[in-house]
Amino acid sequence: MGKSEGVSQTSELPTPAHVGRCGLGPGVGPSAGNIVRWLRTAFSFFGLLLAACPAEHETPPVVLKPPEWQDGETSVYDIIRNDSVLYRLTSQVRFDEELLQPAGSSRSVVPTIRLITVVETVSADEYFADSAVVVMRRDNLEPLRSARVLETAIAVFDLEAEYAPGRVTVTKRSIDGTQMQVLPIPARAYDNEMISFVLRALPLVPATTLSFATVVPMDMRVLPVKVKVLGTKVVTTGLGDIMCREVSLRMLRRQTRFWYELAEPHRLAGLANPESKTELRLVSYQASSTATDTVR
To answer: What is the pTM of this model?
Structure first.
């Protein structure tokens, strides 16, 4: 297999300095367009107006099982609208560990994951970049904190979220000043930047349902999310056809379809939002930092 022209030998992506042992590059503002704003809420990346979701109980409760992902796993995606590639998204998984003290327990070393994502424009005519990092526990994917920098030619936003049992502290910095808010969260809540990653741990069994809350630091909101596993779909990617399970995610009356590979480690092959006519398509993949070749 040949080397990737985009991501060959896996090197650590730039990440925000205030997220543990990382350092962060520039990001994107809302004026960069609805496409990436949607992506971050659906890959994040969905709409950001609060709407009620009908109650639905998981029977039996769904247990998330992290797949066999590896340190340094790097995926590259094209963001497409109306058959045109507008942006390039790179996602990387880094293994780490931290000294934590859970409630009622002594301090101990806990394995963690740093999920790093960078979105850049493919056009030289537009200044645009978006970098984010989410730090989470490796065993149960519980979020610990996140940071994101969004930057365009006319706007810059610096976002942070610190998670604790039952609450999240969100800080938003911009040219207008600094805002801080403490929001209550349920037991199963995930940062908006980690949704598509967490769904890789979902049992890919048709009719499986999952409900949780997502924290959207940009809007300082906690929103309800409903997920359902659908049928099998063959998805065409830059790496060829991949047999996937289709997963429907509904938030704020809007729906996004994700396609996860049936085989381990359940790569995200792509996603689509019919309403915005925007797609995410896998074009390059490297399984780990020790891999000598990149699948393209």
So the answer is: 0.81
